[in-house]
Amino acid sequence: MSREVVKVILWEEKQKDYLKKFYDIQFTPRIGEEIYINKENWRVTRVEHDLEVSEINVYMELIKKVKVEKSSNS
After folding, report:
1. What is the mean pLDDT of residues 6-21?
2. What is the pLDDT of residue 34?
3. How far apart are CA 62 and CA 1, in angstroms?
4. What is the side-by-side order of every strand in the sheet holding 7-12?
5. pTM of this prediction?
6. Which end of the chain is more exposed for a tag (fewer CB within 10 A), N or C?
7. Terminal Cα distance for the chain, rounded
8. ∠ at Cα 47 (61, 20), nearest 5°?
9. What is the DSSP letter of 70?
10. Surface-to-core class of residue 64, CB atoms within 10 Å of its CB (0-12 exposed, 13-18 middle, 19+ buried)
11. Residues 37, 12, 16, 5: is their CA dihedral positive or negative?
């Protein structure tokens, strides 16, 4: 039994920027799952399977970190 290689491509949701490409990864991330890539946390927003070319496109949004600012009044 032969096993075909599946290409998994990670994209930034809003700008459609290409982030990373994997071949034959063990687990495909699910919608809502958080992933750590390029020293930042991302949340998966959409997953598209293209069976004709053995490709999975994973769209993600950057999880913004909320910084607490110190008040200058004190």
Report:
1. 84
2. 93
3. 39
4. 18-23, 7-12, 55-62, 40-50, 34-37
5. 0.72
6. N
7. 70
8. 60
9. P
10. exposed
11. positive
Under DSSP, the state recorded for 73 is T
Q: Which residue has the higher pLDDT, 1 or 38?
A: 38
CA distances from 14 to 2, 39, 45, 60 (A): 37, 19, 11, 9
Residues 6+ apart with CB under 8 A from 69: none
> For residue range 16-73, what is the model confidence (pLDDT) as tens digits?
778 888 887 788 889 999 988 888 999 999 999 998 888 999 999 999 876 666 666 6
Look up residue 64 and give its two tokens: 């913004």
Counting every residue written for the chain, the total comes to 74
Residues 21-39, buried b or exposed e (16+ Cβ, 10 A)? eeeeeeeebeeeeebeeee
Residue 2 has pLDDT above 60, yes or no: no
